[in-house]
Amino acid sequence: MRHLVSVLVQDHPRVLTRITSMFARRGFNIESLAVGRTHIPSVSRISFVVYGDDRTIEQVEKQLNRLIEVLKVVDHEGPHLEREMALVKVHVAGVEERLELKEIAEAFRARIVDVARTALTFEVTGHPAKITRFIEEMAPYGILETMRTGAVAMDRGERVLRLKAKREAV
Amino acid sequence: MTGAEVLLEALSREGVEVIFGHPGGAIMPVYDALYHRPDLRHVLVRHEQGAGHAAAAYARASGRVGVAMVTSGPGALNLVTALADAMMDSTPMVAITGQVPTTAVGTDAFQEADVTGVTMPVTKHNYLVSDVNEIPKVVKEAFYIASTGRPGPVLIDLPKDVQNAEFTGRFPDGVDLPGYKPTYRGHPRQIQRALKALEAAKRPLLIAGGGARHAAEAIRRFVQVTGIPTTTTLHGLGILSADDPHFLGMPGMHGTAAANLAIQQADMLIAIGIRFDDRVTGDVSRFAPNAQTVVHVNIDPAEIGKVVDSQIPVVGDARWVAERLAEGAKPLSLDPWWQQIREWLRAYPLRVPARASLRSPEVIRAVGEATGGEAIVVTGVGQHQMFAAQFYPVKHPASFLTSGGLGTMGFGLPAAIGAQIAHPERTVVLFDGDGSFQMTMQELATVVKYRLPIKMVILNNGYLGMVRQWQDLFYDDRYSEVYLADSNPDFVQLARAYGIEGTSVRSRDALSDAVARMFEVEGPFLAVFDVAPDEAVYPMIPAGGSAEDMILEAPEEVER
Ligand SMILES: Cc1ncc(C[n+]2csc(CCOP(=O)(O)OP(=O)(O)O)c2C)c(N)n1
Ligand SMILES: [Mg+2]
């Protein structure tokens, strides 16, 4: 099963290495990963897509929690937002193609962010599956370059990934 | 104060009395500062791995944090095996490694190695300190992390310029680790559920492991009140005294038949401070198949449900939980269950089929008798280790020190050093293999330097015996690269070269005199026992098997 997990961490040097090294060592299967700062000073947020059965996901969460610098772990099981961003540079041969590409882009709500004589660059945001489809649509025209971010995630509604001790001493 | 002086002051404030170490260029400022700190005892080893195992054994024997200190690059890398060993066996230690100056980090400088990178997977946590004023905070955190929750090794990498820098900071009073809050108190409702399930159980079994060493007193009370049959893993040996009638021996690959059959038949398991290592469970799907209720007490939430599902998980400290269990325990009526178990104990005792040549279990038994089970026993890794676990009658907790999780040959001698330094008044016996001993035998010099009265017993079978045993069983007797006898040193002469007394025993007749002499001599003593080269450890459940697959005795030995 595909799971989307978010983690709050202290933004110490090598904290990302600690996490990825643990994933590699324990054989967890990570599809994508995204990291960024948060509004809280010295706290970063990491989200990643991981595949595994319930036991594996439970271990992913628990092994993350064992890391000293991990503050909070959540598996987005309820309603949530998932977004990925991509830049896609596509070859254009002529005016007709240019129009076709624009039409496809509109259907995907992708924006043209750079224009050159033989190339167009699109920016597209959305669920990773949508981005994959967009790239597939572009493929016949000749993709020159792609860059995808990892998926970022957030629960819908009022649920918040709050910063508090990940394990309370009972 | 310089960073080096601050480091030592911080160690001293953590109550450190002994540092096991080896100097080198990148840690020289600290060693220079140490020159002025006679209150901090330093034990100079001959190889950094030795410092690591000694610190770990010191920690396990004393219940305190062990400290190892080494230089950068090769020094730190020599320590890696010991760190991994301590990590696997949840041993609290703090390692301090010198590092090249911060300005040189990342330039492939002389004796530079990415030590925090290399040790990340084999430490509970590690630090690269770049600011001298951080030293007291880092040391405080390191000791806190190493010794709380599930204990483990923490490494502090200290660049040389930071050691020399002038300190202008403060010593903190406490630690602030928002992401690290171990749970000590098991949930009372879970403990009540466990006690209730126990009252209903017909065939309950207690398994205690290394995580419950410090809970021995409470566990003994619990066992006394309930009368529950009990098995302890390799690291749990001594939680019950070997002569306790409730004790069934060790479970697992080379465990007793009674312990393994009891696991097989139990309708309830209470597992305290164990992680269900594969050497204990064999095939997990066939492990404890009749246990409707598994109570799993562990301080590390990640261990719960990792290998064996548990209906009543209790996250908490083994001692805290065991004390609550002991308080709530009631006498159980387990007569039919005990009757069955006694039958197994009678039918399948640990046996040593008679042979012309001397056998390891005979030696271990003789040493066990001579010491009355009171010694701190340390082992290498191999057949001798399993024989020691089976035949030495361990009386006290934290008195059987061995490399379990990592199975590190060479653990023995340096670990015996650490144990003897932790307990100068106790008898420390090392049971080592001829192969294992040669992996760290340079520490004989350390034994001499500190006049440690360690009793070293080498069970000399002339082989990498455990590997040979597997070749015997699973590789059609193809003894590939396991023969040592043609090139083993004369261990007694070797000891003599260091000024250590010793004796060599080739036959049964000389056994008791040699053992007697070993304990008469005041200082260290090395006794080599030439044992049968083709011994095998039984019972044995082949890797990935279950109690049904247990081989009780070597087929050819039954006939003799
Ligand atoms: C450092 C290390 N290398 C290799 C092994 C694999 N190994 C396990 S037991 C063993 C043989 C040990 O020989 P010895 O110390 O003589 O003990 P014996 O089994 O003969 O009693 C070996 C090679 C190991 N456990 N540790
Ligand atoms: Mg041997």
* Main beta-sheet strand count, sense and barrel state of chain A: 5 strands, antiparallel
Low-pLDDT windows of residues of chain B: none
Helix segment count of chain B? 23
User: Would you identify the CATH architecture of the largest domain in chain B?
Assistant: 3-Layer(aba) Sandwich
Classify the beta-strand content of chain B into a percent band: 5-15%
Walkthrough of the structure:
The complex is a heterodimer of chains A (170) and B (560). Chain A is α+β, with helices and mostly antiparallel strands. Chain A folds into two domains: 2-77, ACT domain (Alpha-Beta Plaits); 82-148, 2-Layer Sandwich (Alpha-Beta Plaits). Chain A contains four helices and nine strands. The two termini of chain A are 32 Å apart. The relative contact order of chain A is 0.21. By secondary structure, chain B is an alpha/beta fold. Chain B has three domains: 3-164, Thiamin diphosphate (ThDP)-binding fold, Pyr/PP domains (Rossmann fold); 188-347, Rossmann fold (3-Layer(aba) Sandwich); 360-537, Thiamin diphosphate (ThDP)-binding fold, Pyr/PP domains (Rossmann fold, 3-Layer(aba) Sandwich). In chain B, 37% of the residues lie in helices and 15% in strands. In chain B, helix 3 (48-62) packs across helix 17, helix 10 packs parallel to helix 13 and helix 11 packs antiparallel against helix 14 (335-347). Classes of the chains: A alpha+beta (170), B alpha/beta (560). Chains A and B meet through helix 1 and helix 2 of A and loops of B.
Give the arrangement of secondary structure elements:
The complex is a heterodimer of chains A (170) and B (560).
Chain A: E1 2-10, H1 15-26, E2 29-37, E3 43-51, H2 54-66, E4 70-75, E5 80-91, H3 95-107, E6 111-115, E7 119-126, H4 128-138, E8 143-148, E9 152-155
Antiparallel strand pairs in A: 1-3, 1-4, 2-3, 5-7, 5-8, 5-9, 6-7
Chain B: H1 3-13, E1 18-21, H2 28-34, E2 41-44, H3 48-62, E3 66-70, H4 74-78, H5 80-88, E4 93-99, H6 115-119, E5 125-128, H7 135-147, E6 153-159, H8 160-164, H9 188-200, E7 204-208, H10 216-226, E8 230-232, H11 257-265, E9 268-272, H12 278-281, E10 293-298, E11 312-315, H13 318-328, H14 335-347, H15 360-371, E12 376-379, H16 383-391, E13 400-401, H17 412-422, E14 428-433, H18 434-437, H19 444-449, E15 455-460, H20 465-474, H21 491-497, E16 501-505, H22 511-520, E17 525-530, H23 555-559
Thiamine diphosphate binds next to helix 16, helix 18 and helix 20 of chain B.
